[in-house]
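Re: How this chain folds, sequence and tokenised backbone to follow
How to read it: Take the token row as a discrete description of the fold.
Start of record: The labelled sequence and token lines come straight after this line.
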Amino acid sequence: MTDPDLDFQTGESGASATFPMQCSALRKNGFVVLKGRPCKIVEMSTSKTGKHGHAKVNMVGIDIFTNKKYEDMCPSTHNMDVPSIKRLDYQLVNIQDNYMSLMGENGEVREDLRVPENDIGKEIESKFEAQEDLMVTVLAAMGEECAVAIKPMSTK
């Protein structure tokens, strides 16, 4: 009756990492999946319909995690995947072995996020060493997470 190969120990909400959207409805500064990567659209142009067919949408996007540039072309009537993006702010508590200890608004501490290896990572480390209180903005999309911005803590 039951399948012994099924493992229900880890459960997900079942929410998809992406959702479809018609190509013509996408806009500049919006998000789209290009070549399997979540990207922010930086350039977009539409070509006219040809003798046989559809208007084409040409998109240039920058990967939100690696800052790599991706390009794609798609008929305007077709659907493209749009990543579901979550943006969360955490308070930086500690940095140990290149991993950040981040405290969420609910007081829970997570220590599973690496310091990014870019300018933001260097800025996080230098401000942490200078004993500044920081808020780290973490972007999560398609199973990946990365610190993308920092801001000083507002003192009340």
